[in-house]
Amino acid sequence: MISIIMKNFPTPTPFDCLPPQAVGQTTFSRKQVVFHQGMIPQALFHVASGAVILERHTEAGQKVVLHRAGTGDLIAEASLFSSAYHCTCIADSDATLIALNKQAVLRMMATNPEFAGALVKKMARQVQRYRRQLELRTILPAVDRVLAGLSDGWLQGSVMQFASDIGLSHEATYRALSTLVANGKIQKTGRGKYVALS
Hints:
four-stranded antiparallel β-sheet, Jelly Rolls, Arc Repressor Mutant, subunit A, disordered N terminus, 2 domains, alpha+beta
C-alpha cells in the first residue's frame, strides 16, 4: 500500500490537472522496496528526488537490472495497461516519489485529449533518452564515452552515478575524466564537476 504524506514537491506536468486525491508523495530510504514484481498496480510514479532501480527476477531466479531512474523520470508507466507490475522497484538512494493513481490517469486519458497528448509526448521523450543512453554505452574507448556523456548533460549528480548511467566503472570514469582534463577537452569546475569545452 502506498503511504501518502504532505506534498512538498509540485505535481509535474501533465499530472497537475489530476484531482488532488489522485496524487500523493511518498519518501523511501535507500534499499526500501517501492513495489514488487507481480503486485497489482495502483499507481505510476514520478521521481521527484533521488533514484530508484527497476529490476526483474527471471523464472530461473536471476536478478536483472533493467533501469536506474533518476530525478524527473516517470516509472511504472507500463502498469497503466497491465494487471501486474513487470519488475521490482527499489530505492537506490533516499528518494521522494510522486504517486499518480492509475485509474485517475486512465480516466483523464479517456476524457481529456490534451492530457493524453501531453502524456504521450512525455513518454516519447523518455524513450528517446533511454535510447540515447543505450547508444552511449556502445561508444568506445571510455574517454569518448565520457566526453559524449558530458556533452549530453548526463553528469547531473555524482561521478559514481554518472559512471553507472553510462555503463562504466567509477575507476574507468575517473581515469577518463583525468585524461580529458589533461588533453584540454574538458574543464574541472569543482569537486565532481566537469564541463566539456567546445
